[in-house]
Amino acid sequence: MSIEKYNPKVEYETIPYAQININVIQNIPNMEAGFVWVYLQTKPKDWKIIKEHLKNHFKIGDGKIKKIFSYLAKSQLIEYIKEYDSKGKITGWDIKVLNGSRFVSYPQPESTGSIIHRVDSHSNGSGALHIIENTNNRKSRELVRKKREALSENFEANQEALVAMKSKNLDPMKVISKFRQDAKSKDLRYVDWDAAFMKWIINEKVVSNALIFSKNVINSPINEPRCTVPDYGPGHPTWEALHGNSVSK
């Protein structure tokens, strides 16, 4: 593969050309902003920069042109100059396209990569490679670290959960066992199992002392109803009415 270069010594090559800072071209990571800057560099020195013209030329909208100019300003490829009237009041802003001598490679705002080239202003233009952790990638790794997991076989209630169960008169062993069985049968997966257990405790019905006492009283063998009438025979009212006198005689 090869790259064809413009050769001014060849007579038939009359293609117009412009001298552009190669350091910017080779190191700017934002392709759209870089190409707009190159386009502006090819214009005459007194050319008035009008965003509407650029929008029509590149077929882009307001949002895109604003992002491009914001990027160029941060990269020190353009600067805004205040315009004053005869009374010294600001009447507007003029845009000056810089030649790239102060160029600072600014990372793309929408970049998804984790490695970005930055140019050392004191280097010869080859640039220094800096590894920068992208915010989006860091967030993705955090989400991976916090993935949902099944309940551990060694799960135990923490101190907060024990206090909550005690305040509701719940049996910790029964509640934990019920919680484990539910999680296993439904194959539940949570990021924070302690928080899930606390929610379970909150939703668990309160067992009052009065209810426990009433159940114990009803089911107690001591309080079962008893028959005080003796079996049929001596002492039974009917037997005594028929045979009582004859027996005594």
Can you describe what's shown?
- With 249 residues, this protein is an alpha+beta fold.
- Among the domains are: 22-136, Orthogonal Bundle (Arc Repressor Mutant, subunit A), CATH 1.10.10; 149-207, no CATH class.
- Helix content is 43%, strand content 11%.
- The chain has ten helices and six strands, in the order ααααββββαβααβααα.
- A two-stranded antiparallel ribbon has the order 1-2. The protein has a two-stranded antiparallel ribbon with strand order 3-4.
- A hairpin with a 5-residue loop joins β1 (78-84) and β2 (90-97).
- The longest helix has 14 residues, at 172-185.
- It is rod-shaped.
Brief characterization of the structure:
With 249 residues, the chain is an alpha+beta fold.
Q: Which percent band covers the strand fraction? A: 5-15%
On the 0 to 100 scale, the average pLDDT is 75
CATH first level of the domain at 22-136: which class? Answer: Mainly Alpha
The backbone outline, from C-alpha atoms, is rod-shaped
Side by side, the strands of the main sheet go: 1-2
Unreliable runs: 110-135
User: In the CATH classification, which architecture of the domain at 22-136 applies?
Assistant: Orthogonal Bundle
For the biggest sheet, the summary is: 2 strands, antiparallel
Assigned CATH superfamily of the domain at 22-136: Winged helix-like DNA-binding domain superfamily/Winged helix DNA-binding domain
Fraction of residues in helices? 40-55%
Order of helices and strands: HHHHEEEEHEHHEHHH
Q: List the total number of helices.
A: 10
Radius of gyration: 44 Å
Structural class: alpha+beta
Distance between the termini: 142 Å
- Under CATH, the topology of the domain at 22-136 is which? Arc Repressor Mutant, subunit A
| Secondary structure: number of strands | 6
Oligomeric state = single chain
